[in-house]
Design a protein that fits this description.
Elements (H helix, E strand, L loop, with lengths): L5 E12 L2 E7 L2 E3 L3 E5 L6 H8 L7 E6 L2 E2 L5 H7 L1 E3 H5 L7 H12 L10 H5 L2 H10 L15 H13 L5 E5 L7 H14 L4 E5 L3 H7 L2 E6 L2 E6 L1 H4 L3 H12 L1
Length: 252
Amino acid sequence: MAEGEFILETRGLTKEFAGFVAVSDVNLKIRRGSIHALIGPNGAGKTTCFNLLTKFLRPSKGEILYNGRDITAEKPADVARLGLVRSFQISAVFPHLTALENVRVALQRQHGQSFDFWRSKSILNKFNSRALELLDDVGLSDFASTPAVEMPYGRKRALEIATTLALDPEMMLLDEPMAGMGHEDIDKIAALIKRISANHTILMVEHNLNVVSNLSHHITVLTRGRVLAEGDYATLTKDERVKEAYLGAGHA
């Protein structure tokens, strides 16, 4: 393999909770510049994996490497500063701020400043140009002055992605980005994810298999905390183990 081909790797990643093994000996290799999906039935360990990768949980065993650096013992904020960002880390939007103000707050953080709502407008306004660019990138130019609480659900999710992009991440972890969306919003967010993947590596947990099949370069299937199978969508749909554990459980 070429040097630096994989941006994120796990080796023997394991997490136990009071004797219950939620994640067991998981070895992931996320190729730089790809969209990699993590799928599996409920309780498969997907969210626990995400929490381990972004350091909200400490592994019981195993290693996590990001850009070749061992980040197993790093804190969540330090991992985010390295460029590995999970969407909700920063993107839980402030409901009564406008879309522009939400992105501007995230840009403050990216530039090493705290979330100081009381700072003078002149200081905050210097972030306006970049904030407007990011809103345009995610199709929200028309919502710049709209409070987040008044935005349609799908547009609010796009705003979350914009606030994540404000941190200039190298790799984004998206936890069920299509959850709760109708067809029109799903199509918009799927197109957005595809567009931003040109400059970012993306690892996503997603239950919508149409989205997974259309977006993902590589898929890892988890079941009962273990890796069941890996490959592209066409390969996995022919795998009898995957059909039995996941696709055959009303998700085909």
